[in-house]
Amino acid sequence: MVLVVIVCCLKRKLAYDSFIFFWKNQGQDRQIVEAFLRSYGPLQVRRYSYLEVKKMTNSFKEKLGKGGYGSVYKGKSNDGSLVAVKVLSKLKGNGEEFMNEVAAISRTSHVNIVSLLGFCFEGSEKALIYEFMPNGSLEKFIFDANSPNRDHDHHLGWEQLDQISLGIARGLEYLHRGCNARILHFDIKPHNILLDENFTPKVSDFGLAKICNMKESIVSMACARGTAGYIAPEVFCRNFGAVSHKSDVYSYGMMLSEMVGGRRNINAEAEDTSEIYFPHWIYKRIELDEELGLPSIMNEEDKVRARKMIIVSLWCIQTDPSNRPAMKEVIDMLEGSVDCLQIPPKPYLSSPPKSAVGSSTATLVSTQ
């Protein structure tokens, strides 16, 4: 009986200590974020109270989407303009994602970068207020395009895909070279590209971004960050080279490949094993100068645009970072003639090993 009493007391003590530790950590995280907001200086975006956010979203009535970070709701600001409110479910990495988002986007002003209009940080409540993008993310226009039950409004023609790929490239080139600090995004993928009413693409979600000095060409990181299937090989294994702005170029190339194929790059359900990894399958067709075999190509102009996007994507996903073009060169290639483009060496990697997105990097790796 004495032993049972001692065990029960110990369990209650441990539970109490864990409770205190949790709230102590939460308090420390909030102090870190508040200190950041004070030290960062006057921000270009407004700070809202939680009541204002609740009123803005009509008590979070209309949900636009959900992810590992939390949920996004449709709202309306005081001036009547529509906004998208991202409500963060919890702080990750001492609030690193929240601070990254506020710090990175508040430095930017570009037609191809989403605008952060405000934020809320009040106790445990955290939210980010963005301009509303009526056409949502690029993801649904790529991966839903070939669905038998798809909405015809989800179809993007090659001219539109070409313009979207060029807009994303311009946004990334601005982040790498155009603003007062170099911003590396580290999570470029279709889900994080938003489209306005005119289908102008805007790079969004800077939760994994790193802000560097313009003179810095190489970035040090404690662990991998990004989304499996888009992560550059050097990000999860330093043997492939140094992490730099070329890591964003790789992610852009993988996304561009999916825009061309209208499918995810890795399709384990493909009947033909040669079609499982799309970049390898399409490379072979380009190399042998065969028909591209893309069902959405309707005429010669479509064929030229598709071929150009394929070649650019293959240059971007080169295993060696030094062989990849900078985003300025990507823009030049997309704007130039396809006849001037050389076929790159065959890219050898398909996707990072599952261990790259294991529990040790859970705070920095997006799983959407």
TrEMBL record:
UniProt keywords, alphabetically: ATP-binding, Disulfide bond, EGF-like domain, Glycoprotein, Kinase, Membrane, Nucleotide-binding, Receptor, Serine/threonine-protein kinase, Signal, Transferase, Transmembrane, Transmembrane helix
E.C. number: 2.7.11.1
Top EC group: transferase
Top-level taxon in the UniProt lineage: Eukaryota
Residues making up the signal peptide according to the UniProt record: none
Topology in the lipid bilayer: Single-pass type I membrane protein
Annotated catalysed reactions: L-seryl-[protein] + ATP = O-phospho-L-seryl-[protein] + ADP + H(+); L-threonyl-[protein] + ATP = O-phospho-L-threonyl-[protein] + ADP + H(+)
UniProt entry tagged with the keyword Kinase: yes
Residues noted as binding ATP in the record, renumbered to the chain: K86
Principal place of residence: membrane
Domain Protein kinase: 58-349
Pfam families: Pkinase (PF00069)
PROSITE patterns: PROTEIN_KINASE_ATP, PROTEIN_KINASE_DOM, PROTEIN_KINASE_ST
InterPro entries reported for this sequence: Kinase-like_dom_sf (IPR011009), LRK10/LRL21-25-like (IPR045874), Prot_kinase_dom (IPR000719), Protein_kinase_ATP_BS (IPR017441), Ser/Thr_kinase_AS (IPR008271)
Gene Ontology MF annotations: ATP binding; protein serine/threonine kinase activity
GO cellular component, as recorded: membrane
Location in the cell: Membrane
Classification via SMART domains: S_TKc (SM00220)
Protein family: Belongs to the protein kinase superfamily.
Xref: PANTHER family: RUST RESISTANCE KINASE LR10-RELATED (PTHR27009)
Protein name as annotated: non-specific serine/threonine protein kinase
Native organism: Prunus dulcis (Almond)
